[in-house]
Each structure stands twice: as structure tokens, then as C-alpha cells.
Amino acid sequence: MTTAHLILMVAAFVFSIGALTFFMKRSAVVALMGVELMLNGVNLILVEAGQLHHNAQGTSLVLFVILVAAAEAALALSIFVILYRKYGTLTLENYRSLKG
Amino acid sequence: MTLGLWSAIMAVAVGAAVMTGVPLMVIVERRGSAWMQRRSGPNRGGPWGLMQPLADAVKFAFKEENIPAKAHPILFVLAPALAVFPPLIAFSVIPVAGSVNIGGVDYPVQVANMSVGLLFLMAITSLHVFSVLTAGWASNNKFSLLGALRSSSQMISYEIAIGICVVSLVLTYGTLDLREIVKLQEAGSQLPAWGLFMQPLAFLILWVCAFAETNRLPFDLPEGESELVAGYHTEYSGMKFALFFMGEYAAMFVASAFLTTLFLGGYNVPFISEETLRNFFLAKGLGLSMASVATCALQALSFSIKVFFFMWVYVWIRWTLPRFRYDQLMYLGWKLLLPLGVLNVFLTIAYTYLRPHL
Amino acid sequence: MNAVLNEAPSIFMWIASAFAVFFSCVVYWSNNPIACAVALMGTLFSTAALYFAIGNYFIGAVQILVYAGAIAVLFVFIVMLLDLKPHKLRSLPGQGAYLSFVTIVAAGLAALLFCTLAKTPSEEAGTAFQLSAKNYSEYFLSHYQVAFQAAGLLVFAAILGAIQLARGHFGKKENT
User: N or C: at which end does chain B have fewer Cβ atoms within 10 angstroms?
Assistant: First the structure.
């Protein structure tokens, strides 16, 4: 097992745990942490692919992913603060006013 | 001697130097502040009070540690450790002296040089926020939490101004490698070729931001004694408080070393390049190894003098200026320093672009 | 750099991988939101350590600077500000089915990546791209210039959105 295989396995694992956290957690903030974990797994694979192919494409894509993740986390957390103030809870099961 | 072994030796040496500098700063601060206030400060512990930091360390070790009843058990203990480690890690990319020649191979006197050293340094200094937040929240104390929130927002605001100034510095030097930056500031004819003369505005802005980043007066509101009890380290006593103290002084060392490396020529002796020094020692009859060691000793001394100058100004300003109010602090960071930093970037761009045409 | 990827992993890499796996498990299994936030920061650090280990110092430093130094701090800040309490119930029913599904997906993903790895191009001598800031910025700002400007616009829009959200005029009828 080489380094490349180890990093791919770690990346797949982190991605899966992120997906699991996103689907299974009741609190919105922790679900967003799952999103960040998924993005991290993807970043690992991208960086490693860039290293394998000897160019900087992996690094560039990762830079964009990190940038977008930062912007999205900031905005999502601001929205969560406002939701908390308005509804008093961040538990995702309680947001069912659109349900028929 | 492999590079790994050399890095390990350098890590131990730099860590020991920083950890020795912290007690020295304790006594310098206490005596210096006393002289500025026309009193004599601690002079009973040993000659000139030099054993006072040792007495302080023994006191902290034996003091009873009160942990508040509802404090979060793990985070409360983790926070002081998080305050001490980042400054020590940050010292790994700062070049302390030139290269030592052992057995024909040049070893740089630095723990680990990275081609993106400046970025790494900025990354590590941004970790201090986390220890402050954790300490304030884990104490389960309203004053601590307020102090922590204030401190973290202050640090984040001033980090942005640091980032903008680093952009203009990278434009000037053309590299992120700290060793290259120091080498570019070697020698000089009428003035030393220091970054201070190339980027004076960035120097001023970064110096002010260094005060804000280390929570030192005049940006001392988060731990202001008359405002918030002691801010985020109210509930800490004994060895944990000593760790916060050490972390604060170590962070001051890192900030001083940062400013020295970027603006004051790092380890360079002013007007004298490393080549000249080595040739001087070689002409005296020393071998190449000993000549390089003597050169590096002189350069390390020059580095220490510059860092110590900044540390003295830290102490000087602490006991001279009053504290900023919180809204004044935020105004300074966002509405004054950030636009000035952006202006500096524009000026640097204009100068860099027009320089070949002048 | 490619040489590192074809060798057996060093001890440092094993330790960093173990920490990444451990901390991401803590993010999932913990009931306490603050523990999840701290474990997220641990995961980000471990990932940065992995980036350093495979030789990409630039992305490692950027990861610590942006992800661990800004995003994770924002998460911790929000958890502390809203004072989120530990959940009383564990999680939704049907967890077993989800777990097995995700395990199968994870295994499939790992297998897919393993097979893809067999088809990577062989090492060509002399085409190694030295990842220094200078080389990288020349490449990035020439090939990805449009994307870079678009990303700048995106961040600008995010700043405007954050400012408007912070002002908080919601649910009120303004008489202007």
C-alpha cells in the first residue's frame, strides 16, 4: 500500500463520515460541519491528483473549493443565527411549516 | 549529519531560546515598568532581581489550582496548551542566522525552511484566536465569555489588515520564502537595504496590528483589569495561568521576530553582508566551519538585538498609553488600517510597475 | 513529489491519517456540539498535516489559514454564541440502515479510486512542476484568471449578504 492509496482511503472515509453527519444529525450547525468534512475529503483527492499528474491544476481547484467553502460557511452560519432568533431552535425536524 | 537531525537540534535550540526569553521578559517588564513609574521594581530576588522569574515560576507551580464547578473539563485544561504551542511552532520558519558549514555542507540556522514560509507564519498566528475563545467559554463565567468574544473579534479584524500589508510586501520582495526575504535585505550602501525603507507604511500598519494580535496595550481591552476582571483568563490560576502568560510573551516574541524578518533585515548585520563576515573570519585564520559558526553567532546577536528592541517598545508602550475603547478599536482596525493597507497595495503596485520605466 | 506518493507511507502520514479518521468519527458520534466543533478543527489540522506530508506546503498553509483559522473558529464562535446544548436523543430512527448504506458507498468509492489509480500516467522525468509560490502564481493567474475574477465577485457578494444578514431587518414592515 503506497501513500497514494492511504490518502485516497482517508479521503473516502472522511467524505463518507461527512455525508453521514449531514444526513443523520438533528442540529443544523453540525450538519454544516458534515458539509465541511465532505469538502475536505474532496480536497484531499484533488491535491493528491495534482501531485500525481505533476501540475498545479489540483492546487488551483482546491483553492477555489476552499474559497467557496469559506463564503458558504459564513453565510450559512449567519442564516442559522437568524433562524435561531426567530424560531428558538435549530433542530431540523422542527422546520416543517412547508409540510402539507 | 542529516537534515532531519539538524532540524531536530535547531528545534530544541530555538525552543529553549524562546522559553529562556520568556522569564527574561518577565523581569524586563517588571523592572522596566517600575522605572517608568519612578519606582524600583523587584530587586530582592537575586542580583538586580534576576532570580525573580524563577521565584515566580516556583510560586505558580505550587499555587492551588481552582477549577470552577461547571467549567467544561477538557476544554478548560486544553486552552492554556493551545495558547503556548502556536508561537513555538511559528518559530520554526523564522531564520535566526545564516548558514553553518559543517563538513563541507551548508546547514541553514532555521528549523524548517518552507517556500511558503510567510503564509505558514500568518496561518499559525491566526490560531491564537482559538485558545482565547476556548478559554473564555470553558470558564463558564460571563466576564470571561465577554472578554473572549471581544478578543477574538479584535484579533480577526486586525488579521485582515496584516493580510493586506503582507500582500504589498510580497509584491516588493517577490517571494514568500522568509530566508529569501532576509537575503534580499543584505548590505546596502548609505542606508541598510531594509524593508523598513522600502515599505514604511506597511511597517507602521503591521506594527500596530502586532500590538492588537498579542492583546497588548493599547489593545488590551479583552484582559483589561479594571474592565472585565481579567477577561478570558479570569478563572485560571497556578500553572495554567503561567502557561497563558508564557503564551502571551511567546506570541510577542513571534510578532517581534516577524517584524524583524520582514522590515529590519532579519539576522543581517547592517551594511555588512554574510560573505564579508565570513571572509573576515577566514582571513583571521579560522577554518571554514569555525568561520561560519562565528558569522552565525554575530548574525544571531544582531537578530536578538532587533527582536529585543521590539520587545522593549512593547513594554514601553504598555506603560505609556491608555487603553482603547472597544468601538475605537474596531474603528481603527476596519476604517483606518484596512483602507491604509489597501492604499499601500495600490502604491506598491504603481511603484513596481513604473519602476523599470523611470 | 511523485516519489513520495509511490513509496510506503511514513509514520507521520500514518499518525496524521489516524487522527483525521478519529476526529471525523468524533464529529459524527458526539452528542455535544462543542465537541463536534473542536473535533472538526482537529480533522482540518490532520488534513493539513497530510497536505504537508505529500509535499504540497502551499495548500497545507492555506488550509490552516482559511479552514482551521477562520471557518472552524467561526463554527466554534457560533456554537458558543447560540449556546447549543447537547442533544437529549441520540439521532433519528433508521440509523442502522443509513450506516450500512453509507458504508457500502464509502467502500465503493474507495474501490473506484483504487482502480482509477492504476491508470495514472507514468512518471516523466524532467516535467516535475516545482510547487513554489512563483511558479504556482504564474500558472494560476494565467490559466484560471477568469475563474479568479469570478471568485472575487462571489466573495464580494458573500460580504454584501453577510452585512445585510447582520443588519437583521427581517419580518418588519418599513414605512418608506
Answer: C
- Kindly state the average pLDDT of the residues C143-164: 93
CB contact under 8 Å between C69 and B126, yes or no, is: yes
| Contacting residues for A63 by C-beta, under 8 A, at least 6 apart | C59, C62, C140
Bridge partners, residue A91, by sequence: A27
Beta-carbon contacts of residue B326 (< 8 Å; ≥ 6 apart): B150, B221
Going by C-beta distance under 8 Å and a sequence separation of 6 or more, which residues neighbour residue B102?
B1, B289
Q: Is the separation of the CB atoms in B227 and B187 below 8 Å?
A: no
Domain that holds residue C11: 1-86
Cell of A15: 467524505
Using a CB–CB cutoff of 8 Å, tell me whether B71 touches chain C.
no
For residue C13, give the chain A residue with the closest CA: A3
Name the residue among A61, B159, A54 with its Cα closest to residue C148: A61
Number of domains in chain C: 2
Q: Residue C93 pLDDT more than 70?
A: no
Answer yes or no: is C93 within a domain.
Answer: no
CATH number of the domain to which C41 belongs? 1.20.120.1200
Contact A51 C74 (CB under 8 A): no
Give the chains touching B; criterion: ≥3 Cβ pairs < 8 Å: C
Cα separation of B68 and B143, whole Å? 14
Domain boundaries, chain A: 3-94
Please tell me whether the peptide bond between B339 and the residue prior to it is cis, using omega within 30 degrees of 0: no
How many secondary structure helices (H) and strands (E) does chain C include?
Answer: 8, 0
Q: What is the pLDDT of residues B31-59, one digit of tens each?
A: 888 989 998 888 887 887 888 888 888 88
Q: Is A30 on the interface with C (CB under 8 A)?
A: yes
In this structure, which long-range contacts are made by residues B17-20, counting pairs with CB atoms below 8 Å and at least 24 apart in sequence? Answer: B18/B87, B18/B88, B18/B91, B18/B250, B18/B253, B19/B246
Spatial separation of the C-alpha atoms in residues B253 and B113, rounded to whole Å: 19
User: Phi, psi (5° rounding) for residue C108?
Assistant: -65, -40
* Residues of A whose CB is below 8 A from C36: 30, 33
Going by CATH, does the domain composed of A3-94 fall within 3.40.50.300? no
Q: Provide φ and ψ at B50, rounded to 5°.
A: -75, -20
Nearest to B119 among C34, C62, C68 (CB): C62
Within 8 A by CB and 6+ apart from B127, the residues are: B82, B86, C64, C68, C69
Least confident interval from B84-88, B204-208, C105-109:
C105-109
- The answer to which of A29-38, B94-103, C141-150 has the lowest mean pLDDT is B94-103
Q: Can you tell me the distance from the alpha carbon of A67 to that of A48, in angstroms, rounded to the nearest whole number? A: 19
- A51 and C54 within 8 Å at the Cβ level: the answer is yes
Chain C residues touching residue B175 (CB < 8 angstroms): 133-134
In 3-state terms, chain C is what percent helix, strand and coil (to 5)? 75, 0, 25
Confidence class of residue B168 from pLDDT cuts 50, 70 and 90?
very high
B81/C contact by beta carbon, under 8 A:
no
| ipTM of predicted assembly, 2 dp | 0.92
Number of neighbours of residue B41 by Cβ within 10 angstroms: 17
Asked whether residue C124 is assigned to any structural domain, the reply reads no
How far apart, in Å, do the first and last CA atoms of chain C sit?
62
Which three-class secondary structure state does DSSP give residue B107? strand
d(CA B346, CA B351): 9
